[in-house]
Amino acid sequence: MALEKVARANHRQSPTVVEIAQRAGCSIATVSRVLNRPETVAIGLRERILRIVDELGYVPNGSARALRSSRSRLIGVIVPTLDSAIFTRMLEGLESRLAPAGASLVYSATAYDLDREIRVVRNLIEKGVDGIVLVGTCHRKETLKLLREHKVRFAVTYALSEDVSIPSMGFDNRSGGALAANYLADLGHKNLAVIAGVTRENDRASGRLEGFLAMAERRGIDRSSIVVVESPYDFSRGRAAAKIILNQNRDVSAIFCGSDVLAVGVLRGCKEAGLRVPEDISIIGFDNLDIAEYLTPGLTTVDVPARVMGEQAANYFLADHTSLDIHSRVELETRLIVRGSTAPARDRQ
Q1: How is residue 130 annotated by DSSP?
Q2: pLDDT exceeds 70 at position 9
Q3: Calpha distance 58→239 (Å, rounded)
Q4: Strand, helix or coil at 262?
Q5: Residue 109: exposure state from Cβ atoms within 10 A (0-12, 13-18, ≥19)
Q6: Is the peptide bond before 15 cis (omega within 30 degrees of 0)?
Q7: Which one of 30, 146, 166, 251 is least enclosed by Cβ atoms within 10 Å?
Q8: Is the peptide bond before 60 cis (omega within 30 degrees of 0)?
């Protein structure tokens, strides 16, 4: 009976270890062992308790502990991948503002897995972070619920949220894709292809693709004629995607890639297919990574203001409550950087 009273009292707030124990039919000590030393608990019971932990959205409230003693001065950053330099500049921008203020970054990668993101968020809250930076606007409802319930300041980057209650420092991915399509149309290209990132649960990849297709259509190119391949952001996958496109339509004269990583692979794939860039085929990337300038030919690409985005996100986390509104939404612009990988369309004999 005492256990039930304690559980009811806490249910109105956030779930507790007591409530988890009650629902799992075990002792509080067992729940504690699962949370701290899971290998000491039998797998069947352990999985049952962890399932209840997920259902209730339980997080050990390290954030509250940190704030009671002193601010943790930790900002968590959750990115899809650390395998390439795509997010490095944003991290550099964050650190350049946060470090002088005595704050530090704790970052983790999700491999584009939104379910993993929930677990990472829960772990960061447990560590007592003062804030969390997310990438993109596509997240599980449970993720945002956790952040709000535990009153952890958060913001999204690399995109702009349509929900005004979600702070965002980013850019319009559709506009970036449209820049590429418009430029290729200006060069007279009509036989187009796109190698997009995997669009499922990725608003950045889907936005770039849709922006490109919509602008191409505006410029008189039938979107159904555009060859579209989705691919993970990987050099070898870009190379393979280029071969798929060229096997499907050898007349393609320009390829837009949803990232510079893909574009590097495409350059290799086109060379292996006996095509010269840009004489036979033009290639555009997205991100303007450092490598883009040093390729041969240099890569035409859509520049993402990643460092400034990181700086603006840091400003939001450092702002006091009186100036939060000023920093809670920052829209940045993309721009096309023209280099040697694009040229006017030319008929191939």
Answers
A1: S
A2: no
A3: 44
A4: helix
A5: middle
A6: no
A7: 251
A8: no
Beta-sheet strands, E only, within the chain: 74-79, 104-109, 131-135, 153-157, 168-171, 192-196, 227-230, 254-257, 282-287, 300-303, 329-332, 335-337
pLDDT band at 12 (very low <50, low <70, confident <90, very high): very low
Per-chain mean pLDDT for the chain: 89
Contact by Cβ (8 Å): 270, 246: yes
> Could you read off the pLDDT of 51-64 as tens digits, one per residue?
888 788 776 655 44
Contacts of 60 (CB under 8 A, 6+ apart): 35, 126
How far from each other are the two terminal CA atoms of the chain, in whole angstroms? 85
Question: Going along 150-288, which residue ranges are E strands?
Answer: 153-157, 168-171, 192-196, 227-230, 254-257, 282-287
Tokens linked to 93: 């921008």
Give the integer Cα–Cα distance in Å for 70 and 139.
Answer: 30
Cα 57 to Cα 209: distance, rounded to the nearest angstrom: 35
DSSP annotation string for 60-122: --HHHHHHHHS---EEEEEES-SSSGGGHHHHHHHHHHHGGGT-EEEEEE-TT-HHHHHHHHH
**Residue 223: its H or E element:** none
Q: What is the pTM of this model?
A: 0.80
Rg (CA), the chain: 24
Q: What is the pLDDT of residue 68?
A: 39
Q: 100 is written with which tokens? A: 């002088």
145-171 pLDDT per residue, tens: 999 999 999 999 999 999 989 999 999
- As a whole number of angstroms, the distance between CA 348 and CA 281 comes to 9
- The tally of CA atoms less than 13 A away on the side-chain side of residue 115 is 2
Euclidean distance between CA atoms 218 and 292, whole angstroms: 28
